[in-house]
Amino acid sequence: MIDASIVNPNLACMNSEQAEFGRRLRAALKAAGLGESAVQLADLVSSHGGDAVSPQAAHNWIRGKALPRPGNLKALARALDTRPDVLYGALADTGQDAAPSCSRKRLASRDQRTMDAFLVLPPKQREAIRALIESLAETGL
Hints:
By secondary structure, this protein is mostly helical. The chain has eight helices and no strands.
């Protein structure tokens, strides 16, 4: 089996960002006096203005396997009395980027915003974007 992080080093970075988000989310839940119940978290998001999410989606956030969409990230921040950028990592713990070894710092700000937007797309839309990029890369455009 091929290690995807060798073929695509940014994959390891994305996984690291997801893991760091999960760690920060668990810390925020603890600070708010809440447990790590995925059902409770899913209810909390929708009750604070976010889109309805499944407990499985909330579980993936808690475990650092996925990132919420921007609207749900804002709802999480409201529910946990913090700021979205603190949960996402722009101001994490030390005030520095959560994953300094990632390529994140090497991207121009416009490219980073594009990557951030890509990461919160639903899987089908991300797959469509990947296919488009691969097609463009093959044709040399």
